[in-house]
Amino acid sequence: xxxxxxxxxxxxxxxxxxxxxxxxxxxxxxxxxxxxxxxxxxxxxxxxxxxxxxxxxxxxxxxxxxxxxxxxxxxxxxxxxxxxxxxxxxxxxxxxxxxxxxxxxxxxxxxxxxxxxxxxxxxxxxxxxxxxxxxxxxxxxxxxxxxxxxxxxxxxxxxxxxxxxxxxxxxxxxxxxxxxxxxxxxxxxxxxxxxxxxxxxxxxxxxxxxxxxxxxxxxxxxxxxxxxxxxxxxxxxxxxxxxxxx
Length: 246
What we know:
The chain folds into two domains: about 5-195, 2-enoyl-CoA Hydratase, Chain A, domain 1, CATH 3.90.226.10; about 200-240. The protein has helices at about 30-45, 65-70, 80-90, 105-115, 130-135, 140-150, 150-160, 165-170, 185-195, 200-215, 220-230, 235-240, and strands at about 5-10, 15-20, 50-55, 95-100, 105, 115-120, 125, 165, 175-180. The termini are far apart. The protein is an alpha/beta fold. It is built from twelve helices and nine strands.
């Protein structure tokens, strides 16, 4: 059984599913190797994949890092392979939506935060539990969470290790919306389709410019947008002739 399932849907949507449901999709080194392979493949498929959904099979997105695998001596291919895989997700040209139900703790929250957007199910439980185990984040929690929800809120969640619901994740700004679990995948697909109906060229440009801008002060970001943006799409004139349709 493969640790990552890929399903290609209509309208250029690729769904990647963490596939260790019996282990609550715990993030083992082997799972990360399989995930990285799919991410690297999708990065090259800009003409056929316009948006990616990352989800978990079973009742949880992921319970977090696989402590049993760590105790058994399993190791990733390189010391920072997991963190680098999250960075590869963040660098994907296509928008990535995390669809989160059930457990989403620590390493899996870091994984979800590497995605551009998040939809939570009503069963979702999100937490940073590094402090409960005497660990410090190395996959990006200290950088991505404050950038998403602000420093003060991020510190409170990280210092306390408290669990928040899918709805509170929306209130805090971690997630975009919360839906019943039965509607989670369909809501993610609906959101993805709303993106892929637009120009994929613009989707990629928007993502790249926003991500680069996060590493600049405002003035430098404005210059980056003006001088280094990719320009108009090859099909812009055709789209203008066709007119705007809601």
